[in-house]
Amino acid sequence: MTTIPATKVIPYRTNREPGFLARMLEHLMHPVDEIIIPLQRALGTRRMAYFFVLPNLLIFGIFILLPMALNFYYSFTGSTALQPSERPWVGTDNFSRLLNCGDYGNPVTCDEDIFWRAVWNTGGFVFFQVSGMIVFALVTALALNRQIKGRGFFRSVFFYPVLLSPVVVGLIWKWILQRDGVLNAGIVALGGEQMNFLVDPNWSRFWVIVVSIWAQMGFYTLILLAGLQSIPHEYYEAAHIDGADTWNRFRFVTFPLLMPTMLVVVVLSLIRAVQVFDQAFALTGGGPGTATTYIVQYIYNTGFTSTSREAGLAAAASVVLGGALLILTVAQLKLGRRTEANH
Amino acid sequence: MRTLFDFLFRTRGASQLSATDWLTYLYLSLGTVLMFGPVIWLGLSSFKSQEQLLRFPPTLLPMRQESVSLEGYDQPLPLFDVMMLDGNTRRLAQVSRIGLEARMIDPANPGEIITVDIASRSPVESIYFGFENYIEGVQQFDFWLYMRNSVFVTILATLLTLLVNSMAAFGLSKYQFRGRNLIFVIMISTLMVPLAVILVPVFLVITQVGWNNNLLGVIIPAAATPTGVFLLRQYMLTIPDELLDSARIDGASEWRIYWQIVLPLAGPALAVLAIFSVMWRWNDFLWPLIVLSRKELFTLQVGLNSFQGEFNTQWDLVLAMTVLTLLPITLIFAFLQKYITTGIATTGMK
């Protein structure tokens, strides 16, 4: 076993005076060192890895892994009890109730019609939100990638809404979209009629999509911008020498080289879109009716707010959602490998 | 980049703006209006009185009706421009209104009462930024309490996240040990599991631990974020092992290597994680909503949500409190925007 002098300081970065943060860290960490050195003596250098990983693993295990396992168990049990031991085993009842449907395209024929409405709402949301957001994020990233004045300013402008909380975003847009709101004032000024944006089901769906694009696109714009800036300059020169015009340079240089970044953006935004909840909830509360009730809200309503508190059904719905997310991710990765192989 | 686009969109005169340039500026300016407009509209609206807010179509700037104090009247009288029967317009103060008629007086000649049709008068207004909504709002809405809770949660959770995740990333990137890959794979596979889908069992666990209605229940569970471990691990992999080995030869303990060599070198990645963590925690809604049910423990987001539920018709107060809620993060962003946007763009990708 090696002996470790407790107070020896490593002369690292000797060319610089330790800053305020470093000094504070020293005061904080040095006493910890005194405690941990005996531990290292007992464990040996290599097994100290367990000590470093342990705190994270504990929190992760208790608050993520354990609930996931419990969730799986919940989905096969019934009753409104919260304690797993008080919940009777019901087999696949929850799943068959959730998935039993005369015609999947028509939620009225399903046992859990709200779940299927939520599924279709989520599907529509994911399709339009992701495709719309990627188009806008790409156009914005291309615009920001040009040599223009005030690039930093514009980049910040597009990023700013990302920082706002779902509750704040919901309130801001509720205020704009209400019947006597500023948008309707604009429509009336242009000779139109006042619209009930948040009362009409289709308009509500539309605005939930628009608002979530507004709130999130800045993040993806930044990622795409970083991707654009990593494309080597020489490729454009080569394309130019070969006589490619602007469109062909985009088509044959920018687009293929941006594909890996694009894939990251697609995966991230898809996963996020499938989980749509808080922003839409703050804006419409899931309504009118069930027009903007999405799967996560269905889970939240079923497990928490409904009088029956059907935790088993909610858990079954989350297992289904988790499965869908898994398939989505694996499919994306497979697809990504194939496109990479092609280029 | 500069030369690239010089060359990509070169025009005859180098100093002249090309059509593409104009299009770019047009798009970005329009984008600026769309991105900032809603927030600015919220800000302007928050200074309006309840009466002003109900008006349709709304005025752009907050206005207030002018009034005049006259002898013999306890309260200031509102001023109107009145179209008189002879076609002239006079500025009169209204004493009272009876049905479709208003009794007005001329401030210059308070003795004489003039009765006019209410349709013939329009209020005299001037721009007015009043803080009444904010003052009244803060009395109804425990802003400072919620703010304190939010700041407490955000700072403590971010420090904890940085510590716990960097320790784990250090362990996972700099040591060979049994189960290392298994741990890493399990963590990464939960990256895409939304917290929302395990709400019910998480609630059970929190209740069992006894952290219901305890800020610890908001702070600790989300501290072990797989995203953070992943980000930091990828960054720490680039730190050469030789540096650690030479420190070991010099007799440094593993803990000292962690905080005196690896942590400073992982600074950029830690900064990005800190930004993310502050953003997540400040804006977190669903988790505190479930864990906290006592009002004195609410964070700003949960507080604002319940406030808008309680006062849903009182837009004046709700708007002012929404502005207060978004102000802190907006100020932080205004000062650090360059670091935040470049940090996320560069390190966030790796």
Task: Describe the fold and architecture.
The complex is a heterodimer of chains A (343) and B (350). With 343 residues, chain A is mostly helical. Chain A contains 13 helices and no strands. The longest helix of chain A has 32 residues. The two termini of chain A are 53 Å apart. Chain B is an alpha+beta fold and 350 residues long. Chain B has 3 domains: 43 residues, no CATH class; 65 residues, Roll (SH3 type barrels); 214 residues, MetI-like fold (Orthogonal Bundle). The two termini of chain B are 21 Å apart. The relative contact order of chain B is 0.10. Classes of the chains: A mainly alpha (343), B alpha+beta (350).
Kindly summarize this structure in a few lines.
The complex is a heterodimer of chains A (343) and B (350). Chain A is mainly α and 343 residues long.
SSE inventory with pairings:
The complex is a heterodimer of chains A (343) and B (350).
Chain A: H1 20-43, H2 48-74, H3 93-99, H4 113-144, H5 151-159, H6 166-177, H7 182-189, H8 201-229, H9 233-241, H10 246-274, H11 278-284, H12 295-305, H13 311-342
Helix pairs in contact in A: 2-13, 3-13, 4-8, 4-10, 5-8, 6-11, 8-10, 8-11, 9-10, 10-13, 12-13
Chain B: H1 2-8, H2 19-45, H3 50-53, E1 63-65, E2 67-68, E3 77-83, E4 89-98, E5 101-106, E6 109-117, E7 121-123, E8 125-127, H4 132-140, H5 143-174, H6 180-189, H7 199-209, H8 215-219, H9 226-236, H10 241-249, H11 254-265, H12 267-283, H13 286-291, H14 300-310, H15 315-347
Antiparallel strand pairs in B: 1-8, 2-3, 3-4, 3-7, 4-5, 5-6
Distance between the termini of chain A: 53 Å
| SSE sequence of chain A, one letter per element | HHHHHHHHHHHHH
Using the coordinates shown, work out and report the CATH topology of the largest domain in chain A: MetI-like fold
Largest sheet of chain A: none
Helix content of chain A: 55-70%
Low-confidence stretches of chain A: 1-15
Summarize the largest interface: chains and residue counts.
A-B, 116 and 113 residues
By CATH reckoning, the class of the largest domain in chain A would read Mainly Alpha
Q: Beta-strand level of the residues of chain B, as a percent range?
A: 5-15%
